[in-house]
Structure prediction request, 433 residues.
Amino acid sequence: MEISVTVNGVKHTAEVEGRTLLVHFVREQLGMTGTNIGCDTSSCGACSVHLDGEAVKSCTILAVQADGTEITTIEGMAGADGTLHPMQQAFMENHGLQCGYCTPGMVMAATSLLKENPNPTEEDVRLGLEGNLCRCTGYHNIVQSVLAAAKA
Amino acid sequence: MIPAAFDYARASSAEEAIALIGQYGDEAKFLAGGHSLLPLMKLRLAQPTVLVDIGRVPDLSYIREEGDQIAIGALTRHMDVETSPLLHQHVPLLAHAAGHVGDPQVRHRGTIGGSIAHADPASDLPATTLALGATYVAKGPNGTREIAAADFYHGFLTSALEADEMLVEIRVPKMNGAGWSFQKFNRRAQDWAIVGVAAWRRNGDAGVALVNMGSVPILATDVASAASSRIGSAIRRVTNWLDTSLAAAQADPQPDLNASADYRVHLAKVLTRRALEAASA
Prediction:
């Protein structure tokens, strides 16, 4: 069926199968490969994107379910001039990434978290990121990054 | 992983959704948030031939006060249950338990009605609403009917809902200041409970239900009479119930990678004690 989805401010109209997952639509049909597929079982959070402003796991949403919505992916976070989003800047300054595979999902989940709770405690951040796994186990600096972004 | 192919139909009203399900028959499934169904479909553990998407049906996402109950629309998302001021005031146990479902991303999509209709004994909200004495409202081609939570769960992922019925509302009695506790034991933050206990206690009344202790959520049936007694006596009554009545209550804890059946029984006793103590503090 035909869907229309606004991704990072640009409206895309495309034909998709009912079973096409949102993450495959974004990566393969739109060619935006910043959103990673990790576990593919809605556990790891690597595929997190914003759907109408809230973090969701795009491996567990059908593209047809996103019809008419606004999606933001990691490609949509930096400014048009390349200025990093404050969360990206905080991850860079606080060494919030090691291999980097979980980072797009971490950034999307963390910005959604700050929207709901602008002044989180460290425990709030750890709980708020429970849906995102870092297999480098770099959680300490990820949490520091989010706390720094909250103050930025 | 990509689900097997299916036909997709989007319903714009509950009536249309029920008509579509009736038209397509047993192989069709309702799709709400999709966070129980889509993972099963990706693993090919479920292969419906038609999905009827009810995610956009208006007027089924609400939390409102109705006399001595709180009525919750079936499409209300876990995040909205978790953060509802009305539920925090009147049914804090349910708001708290909703915050234990999955993780924030899951709670942004998953719905209370989807979780209950899925009838997974390892899920948090079926047992919690069972402990609270909730009533579920189902809508079918011939109108609506109310189903007590205690009569709803028939077996693993099987409920009293007919194939052409849709869960539309969950009605939960106000807790009127009762003490409560939700105990969830797991090894990783976002996991299902290895065992969980939802409990509340108020002078003369109590409710306890167990998560993941069998093919259905388990209601401890004789705790109400223990509730008016002192806490030590109440705990003994429930522990005795666990010893003598678990089997009769359809409890059949299964061994898996996380826990043996015996360990689950042990956990159920420990967590029940903790829950009743916390609910009585």
Remarks:
- The CA atoms of residues 77 and 133 of chain B lie 21 Å apart.
- The domain at 179-280 of chain B is CATH 3.30.390.50 (Enolase-like; domain 1).
- Residues 261-280 of chain B form the longest helix (20 residues).
- The interface with chain A takes residues 1-8, 10, 31, 34-35, 38-39, 42-43, 51, 53, 55, 79, 102-106, 108-109, 189-190 of chain B (CB under 8 Å).
